[in-house]
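Issue 218. Parser rejects a valid record. Input:
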Amino acid sequence: MAKARAELGVADDEAVLARFGDDFRRVSSRYSGPKAALSSGATLRTLFGVEHQGVG
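Output the parser choked on:
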């Protein structure tokens, strides 16, 4: 992004994004609720509560 700012002669990343008409911004957050115990044999639970066994 620094090279794009320099080439376009703008001061910040927002100006670069505006120059190209980019209106997408990624928004995320961390889960801060209680930790739920996994069922016997489960190694992973998705955000939707689906449990998986094994790796991947």
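Fixed in the parser; the record now loads. The mean pLDDT is 87.
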